[in-house]
Design brief:
homotrimer; 418 residues; mainly alpha; Ammonium transporter fold; two-stranded parallel sheet; 4 strands; globular; Ammonium/urea_transptr (chains A, B, C); transmembrane helix (chains A, B, C); RhesusRHD (chains A, B, C); ammonium channel activity (chains A, B, C); NH4_transpt_AmtB-like_dom (chains A, B, C)
Chain lengths: 418, 418, 418
């Protein structure tokens, strides 16, 4: 095979996938069980199943097409995202079930647990978005496996050490995924990044595919944010949906305005219209349990969109030049900053409600601890993963084959056989 | 800036968006509230939320991709549709809530009210479809704001003056939107339109994106028509869904047949397959409350598709040449004529059920009044909007930049910065 | 008209469509009724409607875009699929209702019956996938009409002769559709097939549209498999959803691994990632009523994906060369083999549960009979259809116009009129 081709992944990708899959099947065979004792009030299934479907659409369709914007990276963007999501969800089922396995000997699978698992996969997909294009699928799967492990560990620590509730702890997925990915991309830095990769641009049609993914995410984000809000308190679920809806609406308008304002020729930028319209959903998701009034959600959406749009416009390039962090999908500005903003908003809204001074200080300390724990764990997991993934054993793509489907996909005109 | 570029919208679009958005946030801050006292029988949320999602998919995904058929107008088609829909929905929340604000001091937001608001936004999107491509985003937003105001006023007048029920009054959205848009396009007439704009054609890939939008609309149209049918009368909701489903199915087949029949070479036309397959849904939507039997829905769908397909094939070009109305998305034939047909069908079906002669005449007069009121209001609102929008202050695009993304969007290959 | 053009379908397609549609409307007018006596416990509608929507998305969006992969066949792929699905569903409503008409004089339409009808349409769509591109729309509609008739007959025979339950009998749709289509393509064999049709390849953008369809199918497959599982036994419905979900996940990973392993250069193949990821869903669907444990579903998914991927890679070309069966969408490997595998798995799982030896033999004989009946009926219906469709009366496309939209669609740049 001539050296101008990308190195073959046959001896790496296939064994890795088959091995992991067989291990998963074995573990599932011995330890899992589909929940059989369904509650008496039978419509539980019908209430939750559409919610699961919405999240599934976001994970497989939304992120997949959002990530397929580079002009020659459409197959990889959607295909690898799909593969990573499927692997990460399967792993998350096991890891999230360890506790229940420890107590009852069985990992129980039901619709709600699948939603939680898919959310862990979303955390991995966020990290993937940062290193997309500069890595091969073997890297992506290893990264996803370690990210999910780290995130589940973080969730568990937050729950057991600090007694953070599930909806709050899982919403840290944006912060965890972003920091994990940033450390990783910093460790995998390649000089090529500084003058843009030649194929890292979009074109007219790929932009529309990416827009499709983005709109799917936008539409179903209220389901994502409200999925884990307890069913009993129905008013809370409605609140979560409406808050997210309003925040998303406001951030769409604001992102467009800031995009035009910050453009020298007064033009819109499609990347802003794809990524930054979601900023409101991210920020409200993190602060959701404290948001009571529509205007609070809207104000959070407004600020998040401004921060996010300015971040995509100016911060992305500075992160590259100053810190050698090449962030393919501008995840720092799309998920990272809005989720930090949401964290701050959560703190402020809680403090506003605190009658007592001591209480307020206590809550602040507690809230800062959750953030610090998440940051510490994500950074250390990122460094470990980086060290593992850096090895040439995994056959990283050459610089000129970055963002190129041809390195990994048989192309249709080559696939004709007689 | 060289004059060959489209005029910059920086000083128009950004302030308009930010101003409107901040005003919205202020109004929401003082006067809105998410419904907190949810009914005892708790599954209300789970019943209605999927319905809301379906309508949201239609508004943001369906219309967005349907409108992105011109070969170089994909970003604008989907992006501006998105922006307009978000703004129009936010405005509709306020306007629809005025009555409740007047009586109780608060605008109550719940899932059903959001559906009603999105339907008002659909009315604006229908108008937008007529002037798409020949206007800039500032125009589109102003048009949407005024259209929504007019439509909500019309709905209120129908309800208070003529006691038309909500499902009936809101289904006038097709008639209102079409006439409003037609008056507008007539006032904004430009000589270029007569020999087609050079970029107002589709190509193979854009046609598929447009097909995607159209199929999304087709699939979820039953949810749209049945959304406001009262929950109590469950049989009615099922009836509405089945009627719409059958009418859509029949109109898809009929549109294809008429398209082939009216083509000199016996070929199908993709535009017909995209627009006219929806005609049945429009017509049945307007006449829904009177449709009882499956065959009635099917006959309505059959006639609507014939009218619509012939309209797109022959009427569109005559509207342009004879009346100087350039109708980008053939909205007159897709929404206007089928909804008039639905209005007639509603009248006939009601008369058929009337035992009494006086009753029948009364109903006829009443039914004609609702139509005349809608027409009068839509025409006058259209004229007012046209006068406002015609000004050069809003920097209309040059003729040769019509239907061109480059006038409004930073293009990916230009966006590379170092 | 110059002979280099494809023959006009004006005098064939339009009358056929109009005639069938009018006959349908007449039959519906006399014999159908929307179910009016809805059960007391009213949320039936809300439980089932999202399920219907999921299946509708699969039928119209999923299959439509999956079939639009050939580079110049996008309009036809999605458009003809749409047309065929609409016609087949309408016919299935009538045929499935004959029994109820015989007893009560009316065909009752409700949400569940529409799902059953759409599943019959899926059976036709599977057959269509085999002959796509080499036939014209008139062929496709005739084929669909006969396929649906045969499939409904088969379902009825299985139910009345062998007392096979509805969920089991309808899941034979994969086997019936595949064999019917294979016989047909063998009878319609054309020499051109042996050296590939020039336009039967995909390209980068069309591959993504096809990926979109495939992901839609993948996401909603659990709804498809669980739709007919009885509502009463809620645990069974949850089981069906989880089994399908796991099988799909495993088959996605396995398909990717086998695709890389079987490629000389260690690359993935997009066709495998589109078709073979669904194999698990097909296989589990057929064996669903016997699958109890998660690992059983996963093992079935694993095997199905291996069989399917190897089939697409090696079997497709041998079927063509050895048996003169040109299988456009590799339906044999995607639906045929996995469903046979599912049939075997069903048998084995049932035998495992049988305590009694006689019982086991009885069940085996019964199970083999259902398969043989399905095979016999599908082959004979396929031969009858082939004889009918082979006639030149239906104006088959020339070899060089195969897989070409231009034979059937007015092209946008030709559609400009002044």
């Amino acid at each position: 095979m001539a050296p101008r081709y990308a190195p073959s992944l046959r001896s790496r990708l296939a064994p890795l996938l088959l091995l992991l899959q067989l291990v998963f099947i074995l573990i599932y065979g011995f330890y899992t069980e589909v929940k059989s004792n369904v509650k008496v009030r039978g419509d539980n299934f019908f209430c939750f199943y559409p919610n699961l479907q919405d999240v599934t659409v976001m994970v497989f369709l939304g992120f997949g097409f959002l990530y397929s914007f580079p002009v020659r990276y459409g197959f990889s963007g959607s295909g690898f995202n799909f593969l990573v999501a499927v692997m990460a969800t399967q792993l998350a089922v096991i890891l999230n079930g360890i506790e229940s396995w420890y107590y009852s000997g069985k990992i129980i699978i039901d619709l709600k647990s699948i939603v939680v698992d898919e959310m862990c996969a979303v955390s991995a997909l966020i990290s993937i978005g940062i290193v997309m294009g500069k890595t091969n699928p073997v890297h992506l799967i290893l990264i996803a496996m370690l990210e999910v492990s780290g995130f589940v560990l973080n969730k568990w620590l937050l729950r057991t050490l600090l007694r953070v509730q599930l909806p709050n702890s899982i919403m840290q997925l944006h912060i965890f995924g972003t920091l994990f990915g940033l450390v990783l991309t910093w460790m995998l830095y390649r000089t090529e990044s500084e003058r843009q990769f030649e194929k890292e641009k979009s074109d007219c049609k790929m932009g529309l595919f990416s827009m499709l993914g983005s709109i799917c995410l936008w539409i179903f984000w209220p389901s994502f944010n409200s999925a884990l809000v307890k069913d009993g308190a129905l008013g809370r679920k409605l609140q979560a949906v409406c808050s997210t809806y309003l925040a998303l609406a406001v951030s769409a308008v604001t992102a467009a305005a800031v995009s035009v304002l910050s453009s020298p020729r007064g033009k819109l930028n499609l990347i802003h219209m794809q990524s930054c319209i979601l900023a409101g959903g991210v920020a409200v998701g993190v602060s959701m349990t404290a948001v009571r009034q529509p205007w609070e959600a809207m104000a959070i959406g407004f600020t998040a969109a401004i921060v996010s749009t300015i971040g995509v416009r100016y911060l992305k390039i500075h992160m590259l030049l100053a810190f050698q962090c090449h962030d393919t999908c501008a995840v720092l500005s799309t998920h990272g900053l809005p989720s930090l903003l949401g964290w701050v908003a959560h703190l402020l809204l809680q403090l506003k409600d605190c009658a007592d001074h001591t209480m307020a200080i206590r809550f602040t300390v507690f809230h800062i601890c959750t953030l610090l724990l998440t940051i510490a764990l994500s950074l250390s997991m990122g460094i470990i993963t980086g060290l593992l993934v850096k090895s040439n054993f995994w056959r990283p793509p050459q610089d000129k084959k970055c963002f190129d489907d041809q390195a990994y996909w048989e192309f249709p005109h080559l696939a004709v056989r007689k």
